[in-house]
Each structure stands twice: as C-alpha cells, then as structure tokens.
C-alpha cells in the first residue's frame, strides 16, 4: 500500500487517479487529503480537483511526460550511491563552477556532464553549481520558470540522472550546489493555485509572489522548506544557491531564510557533513550572512554583484545601466576592501541610498562570492554576449587575477576559464503558442526601450538561440584559449598553495592604485598582485620574485614594469619588502 497525500484546502472534492483508476480521498481538518492505495513502484498518478482533469502532484517526485501530465512515483535507490565516504566541505574559501546542464555539453544531459568532470578536477575547482534542474515547461530553458519544484527536469536525465551526476562528483572530490528558485513560479504548468493559496497578492519582476507570510502561509512555507531539504537529503547535494531572495517578501518575525538556515544546520548535523546556503540578493544586507545568534539569518554566503560590477566596469570601461556608479580604480579598491561598494551610499541606478556596511572585523570575506561572470551578467545582456567577445585576453586575465587572488570565495561561469566565444542567450521552449509569442515579443520590447534595435534581439523561442549558447569544446586547447585556461589553473593552484591567499579578513587586505596610470595592487601578505588596466606599459612600485604573470613583466630593484592589459604576482618576501 502507498499513502498518497496532497494539501488542497481550496477544492471541495479531491480524488486520486492511479494508472487510470479513480480513488476517493479523505479530507483532513488541516486541508490535507489522504488515501492509501495499492500501487506499483513506478505508478503514474495525479489528483482530480472538483472537475475531471488529472493534475500532477505539487510534490511530484518525477514528471516523465512533462509538467502538464501525471506524476510518477520515485524514491532514491540506496544502492545507486557510492559516496558513503564523502565527508563534504563548506563552500567558504573555495572555487565554484556555475554551469547550465543543457548548454554545458552538446548532449545537454547529466550523464554528459559526468564526462567532463575530470576536466573540472584538472582545472582545480571545488564545487559544481547547477543552474536550476527542477521541472519546467518545454524541453530547454534556463530553468528559472519551474512549476514542479520537487521534480527533476526529464530532458536532463530525470532524478536518476541527477543521482548519477552527484555521486560521480563526490567520487572525484567535487561538491555539488543546486540553484533553487522559491520566489516565483513559471507560467507554463503552474497548477498550484488550484490546490491552495500558494500565491500572494503581490508581484515581482518574474510574476506573482509566493505566499510566505499571508493567511495559510504555514503550509506554503513548509512546501518550500521541505523542497530545499529534499535536494540535500535525497539527492546528496552539498548546498543550495537561492535565487533572488530579495523577492521573498516575509513579514513574519522569523524570516523564512532564517528558518531554512536553522533546518539546514540541523540536517547537516544529522548527515554528518557540512551543508551550505548561498543567497543571491540585491540588497547588500549583511544580515543574510550574519550568524543567527547575532540577529542575522545565518546563511553561509552571498553573491556579491558589487564586486562583479567594480571589476568589470574598471577593466571594460562599460558605464551603462547599473555600471554607472562603477568604473574607477577608487571604486574598485573600495569594493574589494569593504565587500560592498553601496553600503548606505547613493545609487544612481536606483535613485536612492542602497546597502549597509559590512562588519569586516567579524564577517570574513569568504561569506561573499567574487566573480567576473555569471549566467545573469551575460545572459541578461541584450544579445547574451560574453566579456570574451568584447575584451582582449589580457583584460580577461586581469579580471581573473582580481577575483581569484582576492580574499573572497570565488566563482566562475562555464567556459569563462578559456574565454569561450559562445554567447549565453536567453532561451525558452514554451509549448503554448500564445506564451511563446508573448515571451519573444516581451524580450524584444524590453531591450528596444533601452535603445537596442529589436531585430538584433535573439528570439528566445528560436531553437538556434539555444544551440548558439552551447559551449564549443574544440576551443579549449586553441593557442589563446588554452593559454587563458592554463592561467586559471595556475591562479587556483596558487590560491590553494599559499596561506596568504586563504586569509579571509578584509582588515588584512591592503590596496594601492594610481587612477591616472591605471594600475592597482592587492597586497596579500607576502604577495603583491599588480594589475595594469591600461593599454600601455606602466611601472608599478612593487618588486620581488615573480610567481605568476600574464605577458612578460620586467621586475626591477624597486618596481615592476607591466605591459598593457596584464598582471604579475610577486613574492615581496624575497627582497624583504613590506
């Protein structure tokens, strides 16, 4: 016998459909409906609410035929795992590799990712971060329009494929993070409002907000918490990246992020291995990463877009949109030194004050992620162009040195390490013609309002937009691409080898710069990371034993000459330097 249960306080009647046979369900006082029915282990089932339409289970473990069809029973097979010896690790101070399963390889599956894991190990990364793998409408997309959060996207390989991937990662010493979206639901296949009050009266840029603090919110919160814990318990994930948590509007005394942090720590203790929660937040609010016993939410870490903006604008010269307050070396130095640039300061992009200062004496830099590229920072550009399509390899090398030699937890986006020429464009495959048309027209209209020619904006529904975004693995060993990839390997190895690069305290970080001559130096203990962001050679007042460089610097008795768009890391201790 199998116990089937569903929270559905809205309908007057709920029936269970198992392999085409209908069964009565008992209504409980808490809004749950329950029934015990004999069912085969892989039975197809769904719920019939008032009318005669079979809907998938809101907590569906598997959707073999897409998000509009019946669910399928699935439980993890204990014999599928071989990672009993995996002790896990916290993400703090590590290097994270963000990838999209559908475009990381030509095949676009979990099993195809497994074939590339040895490459990632050789690169030196510590964690793989998967963009959303929950079930969403269509065959391909970014994954942020999920509607059945508990199920795994079938075209990637379904839940069994995800088990194989995570087990293979652990066998190679790689941790796995899963990008989870709890701030909105996608437009295709969202049947949750028919079951209960999952949505609130508010909205955010991606749709209606989730009801986490209104009437009947307790069960909705439980729906979110149980889903989050499921990825870490049933699929052995080592943590989650939580999408746009600033869109989780919670007016209760205990914020849902604090509640999730508490329950994640409890699960970590039960499992005997560390579990990490990383917030994507637009707020620059240290409360997210402040321990709970000090009034914070107790999350492990947070994406830091200020660091991205400061590095990218300084190196590239871009100033449009939210880059308007960034671009100078003074801003870059301030951001690297303080974690946030906007910390109670005026934001010209937002037309108001933004952020709050980070207490750098008590919160280590490893609770912030530094990166020069993410899926957002390339994919949300009008044509999805990467920095590698606009910058020199020297500029890409400088960006890498600034991020990977900084005190922060580091992250990179797939293909960044070799300067991939593939764009990462916004793509979707909504099967509903009206939704498909609205998505394409909305994308063109959005960027046309910002001055782009609408004809230049890729159609998200065009299969070629998806195919263009796939990585070109034949580039990896090309002369320039291969040289950049080897540099990433060397930077990561240097980061792991010397304790100075593991120092997480920003109070120990010293930065010098010359705005006019376009050089900046990060002092990491005995090491100096000297960067020339200008086009011509420049003498930087640091010297020592050359450890790593892009192009050929000239190390003199008192200074180091750097070619344009290059960097050098020197060990000052060899000459008794400060």
TrEMBL record:
Residues that, per the record, bind substrate: 241-246, 305-309, 375-380
Site entry: Transition state stabilizer: 376
Pfam families listed in its UniProt record: Alpha-amylase (PF00128), DUF3459 (PF11941)
Subcellular location per the Swiss-Prot or TrEMBL entry: Cytoplasm
Active-site residues, record numbering mapped to chain: 243 (nucleophile), 280 (proton donor)
GO cellular component terms listed in the entry, alphabetical order: cytoplasm
Protein name as annotated: Malto-oligosyltrehalose trehalohydrolase
This protein's UniProt keywords: Carbohydrate metabolism, Cytoplasm, Glycosidase, Hydrolase
EC number: 3.2.1.141
UniProt lineage: Bacteria, Bacillati, Actinomycetota, Actinomycetes, Mycobacteriales
